[in-house]
Design a protein that fits this description.
Blueprint lengths: L15 H7 L17 H8 L3 H12 L8 H19 L8
Helix pairs in contact: 3-4
């Protein structure tokens, strides 16, 4: 479930931002995914996204945060996954004019 951010942050605050600040755990709380109250994995699971769309969300969420020099690369990767989804899953969709 997507967690809402609390207006008051303290030691018992369960929001992702506070949990990430309290932890050096790069596996469960990577800093490049904790710039808001919603972790990409929570949104991906709540929305039941397939692998390609999930990766697009992941790359958009971390764009420029994991490595500021790779903002464009992260966004291009997101585009690649979205285009692959379109190419494979939207073959039968009617083209809009």
């Amino acid at each position: 479930m997507i967690k809402e951010i609390s207006s008051e942050h303290n030691d018992s605050c369960p929001c992702n931002i506070c949990l990430a600040k309290k932890s050096n755990d790069i596996i469960n709380w990577p800093k490049h995914y904790n710039s808001s109250s919603i972790q990409p994995i929570d949104a991906i699971e709540a929305w039941k996204l397939d692998f390609r769309l999930a990766n697009a969300v992941k790359y958009i969420a971390r764009a420029g945060k994991k490595d500021p020099k790779k903002l464009k690369e992260d966004l291009e990767k997101a585009i690649w996954y979205i285009q692959r989804y379109i190419d494979k899953e939207c073959k039968n969709d009617e083209k809009s004019n």
